[in-house]
Amino acid sequence: MGKRSEKADLDLQYEGMVFIPMGEFEMGSQGYGEFEQPVHQVHVTDFWVDEVPVTNAQFARFAQDSGYRTHAERTGYAWGYNAGHFAEMPGLSWRTFSSRERHDHPVVMVTWDDAAAFCTWARKRLPTEAEWEKAARGGLRDSLYPWGEQTPNGTQSNFARRPAEIPPTTPVRQFPPNAYGLYDVVGNVWQWCQDWYSAESYARPNPGEPLDPEQGRTRCRRGGSWNVIQPFRLRCANRGAAPPTIVATNIGFRCVRSSR
């Protein structure tokens, strides 16, 4: 059998990803969160984004292939839900919730560095806030949610779930995709972004694609999660932040790759 062609190797690298064309879009919102305004035009070069958040099965392949141990595995404990309340639990990690029947659920209990390590292994990276929001909008203009204007009611994404000892995530692709063909854009799990979080990002003159500050205390996260109660947190423009070292049952990630 002959060697694979260079094109075939490239095609394999982009398997499971969706192409997002370059162009401008209106980032942010008016009348919601103060750190989402002003609405401004952002030009994003074309890129590829994972069709779904990284799953337990994908993360398991990474861990086995690389020998990587997550932050929770190295420290020996994590913050989890048990007996009706949250507490530090010895031995808790992503592996706790990666049983065979959950192989196609989004991986959780990963820090920002854990997510970045996976991306490096996969020859990808985490999305910028601008890339994430453009992908989430699916090419729709002036729409609050990835699917349009309809208020979330449980048919579009996984949210408003009560805490449980096993996180009530759902398998990827259980809900309809957005117009770009991306699944689980909002709900299910929050998704880490590349950027450090700044409340002033949009207030700068000509903010462009906000990547500053170059350092900080929290990283950006987008998309809401299974335990989000307020529908407004599932909007495409909603911004979130979390310490990069946090290990949580409602945070995962998806990867992007610059266009070839």
Give a structural overview.
A hairpin with a 2-residue loop joins β5 and β6. It contains five helices and eleven strands, in the order αββββααββααβββββ. The chain has one domain (12-258): paralog of FGE (formylglycine-generating enzyme), CATH 3.90.1580. With 260 residues, it is an alpha+beta fold. It is 17% helix and 19% strand. The chain has a four-stranded mixed beta sheet with strand order 9-8-7-10.
Describe the secondary structure blueprint for this structure:
Blueprint: H1 6-13, E1 17-20, E2 23-27, E3 40-44, E4 47-50, H2 56-66, H3 71-75, E5 77-82, E6 85-90, H4 112-121, H5 129-137, E7 190-196, E8 219-222, E9 240-242, E10 251-252, E11 256-258
Parallel strand pairs: 7-10
Antiparallel strand pairs: 1-4, 2-3, 4-11, 5-6, 7-8, 8-9
Short description:
The protein has 260 residues and is α+β, with helices and mostly antiparallel strands. The protein has helices at residues 6-13, 56-66, 71-75, 112-121, 129-137, and strands at 17-20, 23-27, 40-44, 47-50, 77-82, 85-90, 190-196, 219-222, 240-242, 251-252, 256-258.
Average predicted local confidence, pLDDT: 92
Strand order of the largest sheet: 9-8-7-10
Q: Largest beta sheet, briefly?
A: 4 strands, mixed
Per DSSP E runs of 2 or more residues, the count of β-strands stands at 11
**Rg for CA atoms:** 18 Å
Approximately how much helix is present in the residues? Answer: 10-25%
Gross morphology:
globular
Q: How many helices? A: 5
